């Protein structure tokens, strides 16, 4: 099974100049807490609802502050053509719950999350990896 078979394809992107208020509003409306941040087609980081609360709001950032100040840089990505085991191993070894998925040209084409894996994957090693990631 390939990552493209389990990833969420309807991915929302943030851009460096977007405000934390705009991004958090999009998260609230969409019911998700993770957005890849891209400068043009190039992925430069990710931002989560937790990043906004802990890094931005707790530090006194204004709602108009740019997300670029609070992103996690150099995100761990996977290729849409990679085997599922690649993302399972990455998530387990790095203790991450979501990973941006890129195509062969480096463009973001999706996100794979623990939720995607727990719902769509029936393979034996998926359960073991999910348990390892959740620790």
Automatic annotation (TrEMBL):
SUPFAM superfamilies: CBS-domain pair. Residues 7-64, 71-130 form the CBS domain. It comes from Brevundimonas nasdae. Pfam families: CBS. Keywords: CBS domain. It comes from the Bacteria. This is CBS domain-containing protein.
